[in-house]
Amino acid sequence: MPLQVSDYSWQQTKTAVFLSLPLKGVCVRDADVFCTENYLKVNFPPFLFEAFLYAPIDDASSKAKIGNDTVVFTLYKKEAAMWETLSLTGVNKEMLQKIREKSILQAQERAKEAIEAKAAAKREDQKYTLDAMMKWLHKQAEARRAMNTDIPELCDLKEEEKNPEWLKDKGK
Fold this sequence. Notes:
Layout: E1 3-4, E2 9-12, E3 16-22, E4 32-35, E5 39-44, E6 47-52, E7 63-67, E8 70-76, H1 93-147, H2 159-162, H3 164-171
Parallel strand pairs: 1-6
Antiparallel strand pairs: 2-3, 3-8, 4-5, 5-6, 7-8
């Protein structure tokens, strides 16, 4: 069972919360940070830090910096106000579990939306590439049709010289 971390420090302004959490000699790559608008978890075995935030934060713009055996969070509040505490108090375990589950579902939904947005952008890029290629092929076809017409300047060319494949081979 993980050991709960309680020796953290935090400060705040009306718009942000600054949280410093010691990693106690744990390797940086072993620290797992999970943050949503109402929930913050840092797992660095055998330690665990969990905070059910007093009020919602803007988790998209909030930041975590790991280094020097410390994780330093800059959490931007959604509403400018001073918090009484960092975490909710006086809430039963069932309510905390609901907050945790809702946070996980929100994170999964955002990850799914990001994957879908990336796939849509890739499809748009492929469509653009295909359109450009089709225009190029259309111009090539027009050029070949023009080569096959009876243009006075081309009358002195032999039949094989009018063939684009012959020109291509001659270029090699």
